[in-house]
Amino acid sequence: MKMSSAIALGSNLGDSRAILEAAIETLAQTPGIILEAKSSWYKTKAVGPPQPDYINGAVILRVEMIPQLLLKTLLQIENKFGRVRQQRWGPRTLDLDLLLYDDLILNTPNLQIPHPRMRERAFVLVPLVEIAPDWVEPISGCTIKELVKDVDCTEVHLLVGY
Ligand code: ROI
Description:
alpha+beta; binds 7,8-dihydro-7,7-dimethyl-6-hydroxypterin; Alpha-Beta Plaits; globular; six-stranded antiparallel β-sheet
């Protein structure tokens, strides 16, 4: 059965734009995954410890994969693009976060869906609202359109022409 899943993408090390585009291409080429929608790119101020600005975006996938397999696929793609998991909240060449999987709520040690911090993160919600404004985040019961109203979006800037 095909399910919808929302994924956040981020990078602030290396040639971020090229890495992010290549990551989407890899996702789109993966058996069991269909790329349904892709947001614009945004330049965003880093949340957490001081580090370079990020480029962030989001995609909607149609997947024929259980969440654990989708997570494994995302981690493999991160590794392919040189992600080395160093300190928590440090800079990274590629971050792929599984945000939403249909209306599923899942709480396991290595995977929580919805992503537990997505509701407070403008760098996640601003790209996502472009492509999934009416998707209901199942913990809050609020749509992405509603959630984005409650976050400070002043440090999330559309990259025009990309
Ligand atoms: N900050 C921004 N702006 N974008 C990110 O993708 C991002 N990812 C992270 C932390 C370090 C929390 N900060 C971020 O993992």
